[in-house]
Write a structure and sequence with these properties.
heterodimer, A: mainly alpha, 2 domains, about 80% helix, elongated, B: alpha/beta, Elongation Factor Tu (Ef-tu), domain 3, 7 strands
């Protein structure tokens, strides 16, 4: 098998065991190139049969339902704490009535998407990275290939698409729970009725706040799924590689989330 | 298999829950922007909209009844603002209502305030043009403040001139305050006046003793003594009556 053929089949970085391993910028460029190739392959295979619906649903359950408690608790605490921390500053200006509006805009535009995505990168990313790496190490993926199944479709496509769809849903839950946390936070320092609080929230929120924040969460989901699958699928350094795959999946996915967030802010400001 | 089905049901609940939250959020945001209620469009033309933006609230009697739908420049001195107003308040707004641009608190967003118009007049209809009432902008206020400040500058300038003239000893007041020669003259004059008045006193004494005028002076003294006596009497009367009260 030539080196070129290997890229096509496994989308692994070109390996040349006899030559010295590329380092520095070269290694980074090779990594970026093979990641791009990996995502290209995902988009190609996602639309080709066989569609692994059951595996997709199972992964959605694992990513969505299983992360909800963690995401929910974090979002609740973020909403509560953010409100309580902002309250004294706003009180100095006599602007505590702005609290619901300010917290809701901050939560929905920025905090809940990013926090939720980071939690998913930690929980889901490390899980997928370690799982796929150990499948590679125990040669399950190779076995599937030999048996004529399409491991990429079964393992990678199902996980990435589950992440793309589940992260936005988790963010919606996080938004709602964070607002409830904020409502409780406002009521700790004074009394505000449910109607007044949500009246303020919805008065200030506009579609321009909600939609860019919603759209970017799909990209967060894609980044988490794609990077962790790539790291796991292409791990081939034995048992040690399993830990490394999980680790680098989390680190890279978190970094990618912040980079996407920065780009999203620029793009959404264009429409403002 | 059973467990897998249970997981699928839970996944379904998860998805439905998220979609419901999303739709409720969208509904409430849209409701505030009157996306889901029937509205009428009313136009008004301003020279300057002071930073009003599409999406800002429209108030009638202090209640949010709509939003600014669109702002377009139609000529170099006119900006057309289209307001979307809830159909349910249409009957309260008359054709001669006026729309002014205000702001929500010191730092808040701009809003359009609509006044009711005359009672009993015909109510406003879709597509009508409402008269714009241009409030005073910060620029205009600054302009009038500038005129006041210019006037104050003139006045203080004049005052400085006056003080300057006085200081140099020009004019009556200047002479009075600053001229030492004048002060010396004044002093001499005062001495003369004193001497003159001393002389006059002597003359008067002499006149009193003159037999031609003696009668007149005596009569005067008598009258004065009489008046004094009467006054003493009255005072006594008053001091007797007042303690009884």
């Amino acid at each position: 098998m030539t080196a070129d053929k290997a890229i096509d089949d496994n989308t692994s970085p070109p390996e040349a065991p006899e030559a010295a391993k590329p380092s520095g910028i070269r290694a980074l460029l090779i990594e970026v190139a093979s990641m791009t190739q990996f995502s290209g392959r995902f988009f190609k295979e996602a639309f080709l049969p066989p569609y692994e619906i059951n595996e997709f649903l199972k992964q959605s359950y694992l990513i969505g339902n299983k992360s909800l408690p963690l995401v929910g608790i974090t979002a609740f605490i973020m909403g509560l704490v953010f409100t309580m921390q902002s309250q004294p500053t706003l009180a100095k200006f006599g602007a505590t009535s702005w609290l619901p509006a300010m917290v809701s805009v901050a939560m929905i535009r920025e905090i809940s998407p990013v926090i939720t995505a980071l939690i998913c990168a930690g929980k889901v990313g490390s899980g997928i990275g370690a799982e796929l790496a150990s499948m590679r190490v125990t040669e399950q993926i190779d076995a599937m290939e030999v048996a004529g199944n399409r491991p990429f479709n079964y393992i990678v496509v199902s996980r990435i698409s589950a992440a793309i769809l589940m992260v936005p849903l988790l963010v919606i839950f996080a938004d709602g729970i964070a607002l409830i946390g904020s409502f409780i936070g406002v009521n700790l320092s004074g009394h505000t009725s449910f109607n007044v609080f949500f009246g303020h929230v919805f008065n200030k929120l506009d579609f321009i706040d909600v939609f860019p924040a919603f759209v970017k969460t799909f990209f967060f989901g894609f980044a988490i799924g794609m990077i962790s699958c790539y790291k796991g699928y292409n791990s081939n350094e034995g048992t040690e590689g399993v830990g490394r795959a999980a680790n680098s999946a989390v680190v890279l996915a978190s970094l990618a989330i912040f980079i996407i967030d920065m780009i999203a802010v620029q793009v959404s400001n264009l429409f403002n | 298999m059973k467990k897998e089905n249970g997981n699928k049901i839970r996944l379904g609940l998860f998805v439905i829950g998220a979609v419901v939250i999303f739709l409720v959020g969208i509904y409430f945001i849209g409701q505030k922007r009157l996306l889901f209620s029937s509205t009428i469009k009313v136009k008004t033309v301003y020279r300057d909209v002071n930073g009003l933006q599409a999406g800002n609230n429209v108030r009638f009697s202090g209640i949010d009844v709509g939003t600014v739908d669109d702002i377009t420049i139609i000529s170099d001195t006119a900006v057309r603002v289209t307001l979307a107003i809830d159909r349910s308040v249409q009957k309260f707004i008359k054709k001669d209502a006026k729309a002014s641009i205000g702001s929500e608190g010191l730092m808040g967003d701009k809003i359009v305030n609509i006044s009711a118009g005359t009672e009993g007049g015909p109510e406003i209809e879709n597509g009508d043009v409402v008269l714009a009432m241009e409030g005073s902008t910060i620029d205009e206020i600054m302009k009038s403040v500038k005129v006041t400040a210019d006037n104050a500058a003139h006045i203080t300038g004049d005052l400085a001139d006056v003080v300057g003239t006085i200081k140099t000893g020009k004019g009556t007041i200047g002479k009075l305050l600053m001229d030492t020669v004048f002060a010396g003259n004044l002093d001499a004059t005062m001495v003369n006046v004193k001497q003159a008045s001393g002389g006059l006193k002597e003359n008067m004494e002499a006149a009193k003793h003159n037999f031609l005028l003696k009668g007149y002076f005596k009569k005067k003294e008598k009258e004065a003594a009489k008046k004094e006596k009467e006054r003493e009497k009255e005072e006594k009367k008053e001091s007797n009556t007042t303690p009884d009260k």
